[in-house]
Design goal:
seven-stranded mixed sheet, three-stranded antiparallel sheet, 19 strands, 11% strand, disordered N terminus, transmembrane
């Protein structure tokens, strides 16, 4: 039995155990900040740990043709259903009554929307296959030549809140080891800077120390490769004719040193889970293998008594300096009273973006430290360099070694001058130890293909886990306001909790485009348990409807500029933002309402068949199982109430105008307890489906009975696999306790006695800074007393 203690959850008090963590909406870490050991592997977890290839295999002609046949089959099957079933039933039953007519219309609407989403999946998939077949990787030599003597810089921004230090460390190292000439990595810590909890403070201090530790670790290799490069340039510029064999041997020695340094670091790393394994094998050893490939080529050149030219040798030396010369720092916006403290990732990024390119003087006030533009004579200043590009990277994500090189090269290629954002939609870490993490990862890999295909039709959306952004594009969409006398610059809107989707539309309104790079160069963690998955998916379901009006505005603007938005792009964008709404309500209707069996038809199944066959094929290509289509169906069933809650939150925000709190996904290794309602709802789905089976069996509606039985089996299997029977009981028990517990009312505080202060006791700084903040209250009090006196 785990030890239990009291703790807050969702604004109320409840039990918290050593194994179970209940989080407030603004939390995203363990209650005590401690991480667990490696998670125990479940039966049915992922056995494969090696990731997929960086470059997508070129699809065969047969695969592309079958995809086109699938699109055509879906359209024809839907048309056939409308003609042979819906219209036929309405014609053959003219006196069936209003109820049958309403059922027919509503069933047609549900089937049509679900078929439309399946059609958009097949369309985007075809776009992805086309791009994968046409993609040709830029040779490494061309990248080295393009970035040799390169003068533009990139700043990597890693927003972090209550993360485990080890998670942040892996992300930072994957950014630091990017091969880029001018690279700055900034960790944007959003934790309260002075926590009272000693465990939280210990975790925060460990995270703060990461930048210094990484900088110190890089000193030795950076000094060596910088010196080697400088010596080569002096020999080339000042000395006589260089000896090619000697120069190649010297270059081999430097690459040997760099590879051995990375391999030594990999040997010292602690590998506790599949994410640690990825960091060691793909981030550290992957770069080391790249360097050893160069060693092999140079050794072969030496053996053949040949050598690269002097310029190529200089490029290879420069490559080593790109690896080890990153600048690493930490920034905490909540230390400054003049910056926005809104509790979301977007404003954390906006706070730093607003400072870039400026020099700021910290000034102490009664409210804390504020940043003001620095004057010429100011000594203590905060200088924030500006760069041409900004890379945003979630603290649970990792990049492969040449992410920055290849994506910036794309932005600087002819024809891409108006591309504002480029990214590689993230893939999942392989080797997931839990069933739910494996299936969540499978859906992530499917989404990667979908996003790649949407670029084919100009319908790219920014996916916030990672992206390279032109700073100039952000300046085009910035909104400036004044809060408390200080300027607040909002580049990335925080009106919704899917800020990346809204920013995509904002950029489109200003004439910018977005593009996905057709390779796998980024990976991100998927929730390891049902509780953390609830937090993530509820956030994903919230906000798409609120952004649709901006899309219509973009369409009108483009028409006025004689650059109309293509119809396919509109359909894909609307499906991306709104499909979770109609899919959730449609599935709810199919589960709950006893539709007339005369409306069922094999053509409905035929219209959906290409979608499931294509998804199964994509899953198999991504290293998963074809049968995972059934597991994903059950996965979506247990997430149905979560998605509905997110949609209802969007409608609530649309009606009230209140901003929905940003709920971050917990990045922890302990299990996160789910709200009792989201655990109970899947059981109700199973119970109602079984009731539907019995009722339709009695009536002889075999089609409805079979569909309900299928749902009951899939949902029951998903509960067992993804939530767990024991965990379900614990979570519902805790939910009941939280509902029953009422915090004792505190006695009303008496007004403080007014005690005259001596001059030595007066807070003169607050008086000078704020003035008398009681003035309006005192005036209201005097007016109230006058009114009462006049009425007597």
């Amino acid at each position: 039995m785990p030890r239990v203690r009291w703790g807050r959850t969702d604004g109320e008090w409840g039990f918290m155990s050593d194994q179970i963590v209940l989080l407030r909406p603004d939390d995203q870490g363990t209650a005590d900040g401690q991480s667990s050991k490696a998670r125990k592997r479940q039966w049915g977890a992922e056995k494969r740990s090696e990731p997929l290839s960086i470059v997508h295999p070129a699809p065969s002609r047969r695969k592309i043709v079958l995809g086109r046949i699938g699109v055509l089959t879906t359209v024809l099957a839907w048309l056939g259903y409308v003609i042979t079933t819906v219209l036929k039933q309405l014609v053959d039953n003219p006196g069936a009554g209003f109820r049958f007519g309403a059922e027919t219309l509503s069933y047609l609407v549900v089937v049509s929307f679900l078929t439309f989403s399946a059609l958009m999946y097949l369309t985007a998939r075809q776009g992805a296959l086309t791009r994968f077949r046409a993609h040709r990787r830029v040779p490494r030599g061309e990248l080295d030549r393009h970035f040799f003597d390169y003068s533009e810089g990139i700043t990597v921004l890693i927003p972090s809140y209550a993360e485990e230090p080890e998670v942040v460390r892996g992300t930072m190292w994957s950014a630091v080891l990017q091969e880029f000439p001018d690279l700055s990595v900034v960790l944007l810590l959003d934790d309260p800077p002075f926590p009272a909890d000693p465990d939280v403070l210990r975790r925060l201090e460990a995270t703060r120390a990461l930048a210094g530790q990484i900088t110190e670790t890089l000193k030795e290799p950076a000094a060596r490769v910088n010196a080697a490069y400088a010596r080569y340039r002096r020999r080339r510029d000042q000395g006589p004719e260089l000896d090619p064999g000697t120069e190649v041997e010297r270059l081999i020695a430097e690459y040997q040193y760099a590879a051995e340094w990375l391999e030594a670091m990999a040997e010292t790393e602690s590998v506790e889970d599949h994410v640690d394994e990825f960091f060691v094998d793909l981030v550290l050893m992957g770069l080391a293998r790249e360097l050893r490939l160069v060693i092999l080529a140079l050794t072969a050149a030496n053996a053949q008594r040949k050598s690269p030219g002097p310029e190529r040798i200089a490029e290879l030396y420069a490559r080593l300096t790109w690896i080890f010369n990153a600048r690493v720092s930490t920034f905490e916006r909540k230390r400054f009273a003049s910056l926005s403290h809104e509790a979301n990732k977007a404003m954390n990024l906006n706070a730093y973006l607003s400072l870039m390119g400026g020099t700021w003087h910290p000034e102490q006030t009664a409210d804390g430290t504020v940043l003001r533009p620095a004057g010429v004579d100011d000594g203590n200043v905060l200088s924030v360099p500006d760069t041409t590009y900004v890379l945003t990277l979630d603290a649970d994500s990792m990049l492969l070694r040449d992410y920055c090189l290849r994506l910036v090269h794309l932005l600087e290629s002819p024809g891409n001058e108006q591309v504002a954002v480029t990214q590689t939609p993230y893939s999942s870490f392989r080797g997931a130890p839990t069933r739910i993490e494996r299936i969540a990862g499978a859906t992530t890999d499917i989404q990667h293909i979908q996003h790649q295909g949407m670029t084919q039709y100009g319908a790219t959306f920014w996916v916030g886990a990672n992206a390279v952004i032109r700073k100039r594009a952000l300046e085009d969409i910035v909104e400036i306001s004044t809060v408390g006398g200080f300027e607040v610059r909002t580049y990335i809107q925080d009106r919704t909790v899917i800020e990346d989707t809204e920013s995509s539309v904002d950029l489109g309104k200003h004439g910018w485009t977005l593009a996905n790079y057709p390779e796998r160069l980024s990976y991100s963690a998927t929730p390891p348990d049902f509780g953390s998955l609830v937090v993530q998916r509820r956030r994903w379901a919230n906000g798409g409807l609120l952004i649709l009006p901006k899309l219509w505005e973009q369409i009108r603007n483009r028409r006025g500029q004689a650059r109309p938005v293509l119809f396919r792009e509109i359909l894909l964008r609307v499906n991306y933002m709104a499909s979770i709404t109609w899919a959730s309500f449609g599935l709810l209707f199919l589960l709950a309402y006893p539709y007339d069996s005369r409306l069922l038809s094999p053509l409905v199944f035929l219209a959906a068949l290409p979608y499931f066959l294509a998804m199964g094929s994509d899953l198999r290509d991504c290293g998963h199982r074809f049968s995972d289509i059934f597991r994903i169906y059950g996965f979506n069933l247990v997430l149905l109430p979560v998605n509905l809650a997110g949609v209802l939150k969007s409608l609530q925000q649309a009606l009230t105008g209140d901003k929905i709190p940003f709920v971050r996904t917990p990045k922890v290794k302990d299990r996160t307890a789910a709200p009792a309602l989201y655990v109970l709802a899947p059981y109700l789905i199973v119970a109602f489906s079984l009731l539907t089976v019995w009722r339709n069996w009695e009536l002889g509606n075999w089609g409805n009975a079979a569909f309900a039985a299928f749902n009951a089996v899939m949902a029951a299997g998903a509960i067992r696999a993804y939530i767990g029977l024991a965990n379900s009981g614990v979570d519902m028990y805790l939910g009941v306790l939280n509902w029953l517990y009422v915090e004792p009312k505190k006695p009303k505080a008496l007004p403080p006695a007014i005690i005259p202060k001596t001059p030595e006791q007066v807070d003169w700084e607050s008086l000078l800074y704020h003035g008398d903040r009681r003035l309006n209250r005192d005036l209201r009090g005097k007016n109230d007393r006058r009114k009462r006196a006049g009425s007597v």
